[in-house]
Known about the structure:
The chain has 13 helices and ten strands. The two termini are about 30 Å apart. Helix 5 (about 155-170) packs across helix 6 (about 180-190) and helix 5 runs antiparallel to helix 10. It is α/β, with parallel strands linked by helices. It has helices at about 45-60, 85-95, 105-115, 145-150, 155-170, 180-190, 195-200, 210-215, 215-225, 225-250, 270-285, 295-310, 315-325, and strands spanning about 5-10, 15-20, 25-35, 70-75, 100-105, 120-125, 130-135, 140-145, 260-265, 290. It folds into two domains: about 5-110 and about 295-325, 2-Layer Sandwich (Nucleotidyltransferase, domain 5); about 115-295, Nucleotidyltransferase, domain 5 (2-Layer Sandwich). The longest helix is centred in the C-terminal third of the chain and has 24 residues, at about 225-250. About 50% of the residues lie in helices and about 20% in strands.
Amino acid sequence: MKRDLIISIDGGGTHTTAITVDPKGEILGRGAGGPANHVLAPIEVVKASLRDAVAGALGEAGAKPSDVALIAGDTAGIGYLREGADYVEGIIADFFPDVPVYLVGDMVAGFFGALSHGWGVVATAGTGSSIYGRTEQGEGLQAGGWGHILGDEGSAYDIAVGGLRAAARAYDGRGAPTTLTDAFPEHFGLSDMIGVAITVYVDKAMTRDRIAEAARVVTQEANRGDAVARSIMETAGRELALGVVTVAQKLAFAPGRMEVSWSGSLFLAGDVIIGPFSKAIMNQYPAAVIKPPLMPAVGGGVRIACERLGWNFEPMKEKLIRGLS
């Protein structure tokens, strides 16, 4: 039996993706699922998300579990020191009992996907947010990641709630006028902000991840030039930058020796988030190198799998990057 395939998982607060990769870095199959944060999502939902993503990646590749050397990657809800990993690994093992599983936190997989080497600081922002840094000596540190009640500043959920509150204030006349008052009802298929409020509080389907998806409305209006939406995005960028600077200072990075990148769906918003994020970092670390991620977190999972298996990742890297771009 030749186990020469890797399955990498990236399980977020809203979506889960998985890929099947061969030893050359070729992506043979892709799978998808729903929320996979075992701390915040119903456990049956998490189980279905992980099962569907892995099964989809296997099926599209035309592969069997016996072809897989390791299922690796991340899920939101696992800590940077792998707190909670055993529990989520057990869920996957129940569905695929003959395949080894190794998971890390999403901030760690995002880090190893984003940077070409093993040191620097990466901001991860999707439904939630966190910051992870690592020195050349392998010392790691996290900031943020406190969840939507205690933190998640700069996340999609944070931006969506900020946008909804701004729209409610504008609707009353208590806040600055904003196109969000029309854009949110349109997004939810409703007539006005009163309908949005009723839906948010009454509809049981209005979960944290569904609210977080409304961040795209704020992003859309910010890109169209709405001042209120742009202000919300700028605040989010500065909050994420604050986390990066905090981690960099605690890890004692020299000003000219710090590389910074990002991971997660929020950064697909482009310059309305990346611009204020980068500017705030450069105010504190003018010599920092800030660059786009090499790969998304699911690529970081492949890199982590290779490290666990003792495989050389370098021959796989370029083809994997192209496949994930």
